[in-house]
Design brief:
This protein is an alpha+beta fold. Helix content is 36%, strand content 17%. It folds into 2 domains: 168 residues, 3-Layer(aba) Sandwich (Creatine Amidinohydrolase, Chain A, domain 1); 262 residues, Creatinase/methionine aminopeptidase superfamily (Creatine Amidinohydrolase), CATH 3.90.230. Helix 10 runs antiparallel to helix 11.
């Protein structure tokens, strides 16, 4: 029988924080992630909805959870029942009894009873935090329950939800600040990711295939205790390093290539997100070195800004300014730096943002703007810092030595009350350290 990833008490703390943040008359309704088909009757490996995972630790499909602010029962689950036949095929199910004894539900029922019981559970709430417009089946279940709750004429004066808000708004802000236990898992994910990236640097020599590095990386993730990749692993060599989300990983690495690897291990639901760029030959060419040093200098400067005194926008603006100044200095852009920033001229070679929140999702929930202002960086949040430059091989307007160079350097950074903590800082990224590994 499966048990929660983390201690039961920690998930209870997550629920208590969510319930405490719920205004009177509001409730949270979460549907578990639906299994995703691969092809035919085959399915991808199951991954639970991250909000539901955060509140319960439940990893099986066919589950619905309701948190009812100010009302008993507070925590209700609908889950797959015990089934001796199906458990032979797909593994032991906790069932409703396990949902209460292992996962702390106040009430738990078979998922088949959802349509019968949900209408009464909705009574008394005017606002529901629920994801609508994403999964038609879930929407239909909720609308049918509301219609059923209103059906008896004598019950038309009941208070029922007539306002629906995304759970991202409330749960996103809670998930943004990580507990010590969550950070411990993120450090474990980072440590496994370290080993995988170092292995890729050592193996990424001319003649190797991008998919061979992908396989080596993901082998390390699983062999060292990880769940697997937290997102599709990117291995881009040569011109493919200029493709931001190159996941085909189908090219043979050539002498003189840079190899860009963006891959992170997931550990008990929490993922790392790391990018390193290294020379297949073992030595950066002069032009590659210039681009790499520019990106690295900007990344280090931005990491130093990851403090409670900064906002997300301030870090982003610093990256834009640093990269634009460097592009002008190297002759890839010409003109006044201020005008280039104003006109977004840098987007020719730097077209993404400086980073994103990180946690149970690689692009984790949490606000980037609060009101009319950029969100401040709060202690306990983890943010990626990932500047990059991507110079197309057919860009005839730039100096020829830079054509086809793609570089991104990405780390996971914890906001503290003082200096930033780079969770992935042990993964080599100086030119000297990278070249030493690649020459082994």
């Amino acid at each position: 029988m499966s048990a929660p990833f983390l201690a039961r008490e920690l998930y209870a703390q997550h629920r208590q924080r969510a319930l405490a943040a719920l205004p009177e008359g509001e409730a949270i309704l979460l549907f578990g992630a639906a299994p995703k088909g691969r092809n035919g009757d085959s399915e991808h490996r199951y991954r639970q909805d991250s909000h539901l995972l955060y509140l319960t630790g439940w990893t099986d499909p066919e589950v619905v959870v309701m948190l009812r602010g100010g009302e008993a029962p507070n925590f209700v689950m609908f889950v797959q029942p015990k089934d001796a036949v199906m458990e032979v095929w797909t593994g032991i199910r906790p069932g409703p009894e396990g949902a209460t004894t292992l996962y702390g539900a106040d009430e738990a029922h078979p998922i088949a009873e959802l349509a019968k019981r949900l209408p009464e559970l909705l009574v008394g709430f005017h606002t529901l935090h629920v994801r609508l417009g994403v999964h038609p089946h879930d929407d239909a279940v909720l609308m049918a329950a509301l219609a059923s709750a209103r059906k008896p004429a004598r019950e038309r004066q009941r208070v029922l939800p007539d306002a629906f808000v995304s759970p991202d708004r409330l749960l996103g802000q809670l998930r943004l600040i990580k507990s010590p236990e969550e950070l411990a898992l993120m450090r474990e994910a980072a440590a496994i990711t370290h080993e995988a990236h170092v292995a890729a640097m050592g193996a990424g020599k001319p003649g190797a295939k991008e998919y061979e590095l992908e396989a080596l990386i993901e082998y390390n993730f699983r062999a060292r205790g990880g769940d697997g990749p937290g997102y599709a692993s990117i291995v881009g060599s040569g011109p493919n390093a200029c493709i931001l989300h190159h996941v085909k990983n189908d090219r043979q690495i050539q002498d003189g290539d840079l190899v860009l690897v963006d891959a992170g291990c997931e550990r008990q639901g929490y993922t790392a997100d790391v990018t390193r760029t290294f020379p297949a030959s073992g030595t950066f060419s002069p032009a590659q070195r210039e681009i790499y040093e520019l990106v690295l200098s900007v990344q280090l400067a931005c990491i130093d800004l990851v403090r409670p005194t900064s906002t997300f926008k301030q870090v982003s603006d610093a990256a834009i300014r640093g990269l634009t100044e460097g592009l002008v200095r190297l002759g890839l852009l010409s003109g006044d730096v201020e005008e280039l920033i104003q006109e977004k001229g840098y987007k020719r070679y730097y077209m993404h943002g400086i980073g994103h929140w990180l946690g149970l999702d690689v692009h984790d929930v949490g606000a980037y703007v609060e009101g009319q202002s950029s969100s401040p960086l709060r202690p306990g949040a983890v943010i990626t810092i990932e500047p990059g430059l991507y110079i197309p091989p057919d860009d005839t307007d730039c100096p020829p030595q830079y054509r086809g160079i793609g570089v991104r350097i990405e780390d996971d950074v914890l906001v503290t009350s003082g200096d930033p903590e780079v969770l992935t800082g042990s993964i080599p990224k100086t030119i000297e350290a990278i070249e030493a590994i690649c020459r082994r």
